[in-house]
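Q: Here's a chain of 419 amino acids. Please give me its 3D structure as tokens.
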Amino acid sequence: MLFCIPGFVLLALWISMANLQQGAPEEKEKAAALKDLLSRIDLDELMKKDEPALDFPLTLEGFGYSFNEKGQLRDIKTGEPFVFNCREDLHRWNQKRYEALGEVITQYVYGLLENECHLQKIMIPDDATEEEPRSFIFMSEDALTNPDKLLILIQGSGAVRAGQWARRLIINEDLDSGTQIPYIKKAVDDGYGVIVLNPNENYIEVEKTKEQPEPSSDSTDEPAEKRERKDESLKETKKRCDVYEKYRNPQKEKETEQICIKDNSSPEEHVIYVWDHFISKANAKYIFFVAHSYGGLAFLEVLLQREVEVKSRVSAVALTDSVHNVWHQEAGKSVLDWLQKHCCNWVSSAEPLDTPVESMLPDCPRVSAGTERHELTSWKSFHSIFKFFSKALEAPNAEARSTPTVTTRSSNRIKHEDF
């Protein structure tokens, strides 16, 4: 007869048995009894009971949710907000469910970018073969032809994809605070072309092919009896590891390997690629960036790698709680001077919106985003950022800004002084 007991009890039994095996003879007898008990536990049934199948819907409706007229994710039947702990005491399963919902929401946002914001999906790199993995960005129809203004949007790192600031906000707050859609609509209304970057789409995952185990190299100097004992010991160790792994990860997912996307294998590489192949070729006289969190670091990398071009084309950069570091990224005096004049970083702070905030680093000015929540900084500073762009357009040197020029890569980075 097979028993089925809770997982935490099973774990306690294993620990007890391990302790008993190292004690006196009577304790070893107890360990033998525990081992016999464990051998009669139906581990497969236990795992099924502890964790439901990791098989999730592919649509919002399948999850039982939809976005209401305010852009809030709500339960279709009850109207209640999203609940993370759908199954009590099953954190791993709940987390997998949350991630699966996040993937569905990513596709939903892509749909909004195309259908509601009327952006075009552009595949990159443009020279990839059919067999090679590709990524994509979104652009307004006039992104490269608009002679006046162009807005570039860069999110932070992690699971967020094109059009998103924070998945957590989309799920728990609303679409306005968690997506870039308000920025896109405002920019289009104000006559900007728009390019939405996708810096976290760096690779595809494919199932890993199983490697054939290499035959063991038996040492001719080792006695056969000793080899047999060693083999038995290895088998026993593997058996224990397999049992532990089955308990830790009962629904073992397929092993995968990553295939990087050419010229887009990191956020920094992606932003540089888009600069070289799209932004630098745009007709816009005034180019503006909004970069959140790690997006600020990626922008600074473009500035360092394409210094002459960026400084001659970009009018203003709005950072939101950027994690760039001018020391670690080795920015010199010419870059620091430019950042002081053309950038502003809205940081998480308890101070009122736009209140100056001191910085230990000699880079761009920092002001409060009016919130202490990192993920909310882009939304809370929304109106202030567009005012910042308007002031940049009104600056005395704005009218003197030159039209697009072509520069060579070799002369792109200015030699700067140490500070």
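Q: Can you summarize the key feature?
A: The CA atoms of residues 60 and 333 lie 50 Å apart.
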